[in-house]
Amino acid sequence: MAFERFVAQRASQVRAKGEDVGSGWSQEALLSGAGWEALGESTRSFRELYGFPATLAWAALQLKDLPPARHVEVWIIGARSGMEGWLAEEGSWDFLIEIFPTSSWKLCLIGPEMREDLRLGARVEVESARLQGHEWIQKDGLCPDLVVCFNSGIGTLSVSITKPWLLTVAALLKLDVPILFTCFGLKERKGEEFLLRGLFKARVLVDFLENPFRQRPGDRPGCYRSLEEESLSAPEGEAELCNAQLWWAQGSQLSAEELDQVALKAPKVLEELTQSYALQVWCGSWYTNEVVKARAI
User: Fold this and answer.
1) Domain 43-263, what architecture?
2) Rounded to two decimals, what is the model's pTM?
3) 206: which residues sit within 8 A by CB, 6+ positions away?
4) Per-domain residue ranges of the chain
């Protein structure tokens, strides 16, 4: 697997320097502030294979109450076969064992774009389900230690992207466990603040942080390899990078019944927001045209 190849390569480099093997694979390295370079490898292929696992590991280290030795079950909601599933097949999630050697990990990859039959268990146990998050919660009936929503798109506030997440968000907040949200940049961050904190009243466990292990311009992990260069750039030139911003939530100020009501009413709020924005854009364009005409007279 790719992970074993990189570990072997890293070990060879470390031995050549007379250092202890594995000195670059540690919690201290992740927290050093040096980003990718602290891991002794920063090539594009390395970042594509380990950007998501390194993001989860670094984010987990921001939690004050993560026990040092335990079995950790993580639900990755909105997972896709071409991304989180691909990383599992490449062995990339084994990175977690290197950073947390006293813990065992189980990842449940859950999403309507996941294959059903993914079952792996060499070092990190992985299973999958082709379900939406709230459907999985109803079926499973248990509670994970952590939940992760990588680049969900919730912050786009697009009705077509966000609506399928609403019942899931309500169900996840009811679990009252740490939930990691990541997004592509500052614009989606603002959208998540509006929807998750403003409407769903999610409690902030760890506020927004810039992720030192975000992808870099030009990176194409997993299913993003089929995208054109321009498709990962914002119109104004702000680079949209996988997992650029992240934060942790846990629970909500709202009751379970109130969360359900928000999930049902949110689509109308988003539609009204979209219409209001479209009207502002149209009015702004109309005003600009009128000013140009007036100046031409």
Assistant:
1) 3-Layer(aba) Sandwich (3.40)
2) 0.84
3) 59, 62, 63, 247, 248
4) 43-263
